[in-house]
Amino acid sequence: MPSSAAEPPKSVTACVLIIGNEILSGRVQDENVAFLAKGLNDAGIRLKEVRVIPDDTDTIVGTVNEVRRAFDYVFTTGGIGPTHDDITAQCIAEAFAVKLILHPEAKRLLEGHYPPGAVNEARMRMAYVPDGAVLLPNPISRAPGFRIGNVYVMAGVPQIMQATFAELSHNLKGGAKVLSRSVSCSLGEGVLARGLGELQARYDDLEIGSYPYFRRADFGVTVVVRGIGRPRLLAATEELKALIAGLGGDPQEGASED
Which of 22, 31, 85, 105 has its CA 20 to 30 A from that of 156? Predict the structure, then answer.
């Protein structure tokens, strides 16, 4: 006999691995996380963790094997170009214990993109993927990313990564979308801290974060409530506004993201 209780919303999770010594050194600033976080949320996938790791074989293999078992989806950026330090494809193959092979379709794409004779040994490196991987489209430079298991491997160049993600995002299977509400006021965090802690304890299925702001004329805090259950989100927001008003503040509510 079916249960009369409603099924709880399913949460689908993801981890992003940013691979590259240039990110860790500060020479290059990451531009991919914010884009992926929004795109995943739009697909009903909750980005739970982001890690920045070096171009080191043991680190990449170990981290990939750890996170692919802990999350529904793993997305990597960086390390699939033509140079000696682009080792991501080989590392993913090692993580899945398969060979790195020359993919005939990837080879064809590269040879069709460059002038005759221009696909040298270095460029051909970009046609090698783990055995059993499925190519991910790259409408900009044609050198494809790939998917194996629940791991999606993409270029680190933001324009290429974004174009690849736009192509693959339609096939992602998400769960309940994360919604949010924000409430701002001119009170300080220290005034709100105790009440916010008590509110979080009552709504432990939601995320409640406070973010102070400082402007030329004033200061205050914006409190953001996030979760996958709309009734609980709205109830917590109403309690939050009552808390602020009771402490002498003027709560200003923002729109939900859905």
Answer: 105
Tokens 């993919």 belong to 103
d(CA 153, CA 209): 31
Q: Which CATH architecture has domain 179-253?
A: 2-Layer Sandwich (3.30)
CA distance 170 to 25: 34
- For the record, the structure tokens of 129 come out as 């993927």
Spatial separation of the C-alpha atoms in residues 140 and 188, rounded to whole Å: 48
pLDDT of 9-56, one tens digit each? 578 999 999 999 999 999 999 999 999 999 999 999 999 999 999 999
CATH architecture of the domain with range 12-171: 3-Layer(aba) Sandwich (3.40)
Answer whether 19's CB lies under 8 Å from 76's CB. yes
88-95 and 57-70 helices, crossing angle to 10°:
50
50 DSSP β-pair partners = 16
CATH 3.40.980.10 boundaries in the chain: 12-171
Helix (H, G, I), strand (E, B) or coil at 40: helix
- pTM of the prediction? 0.85
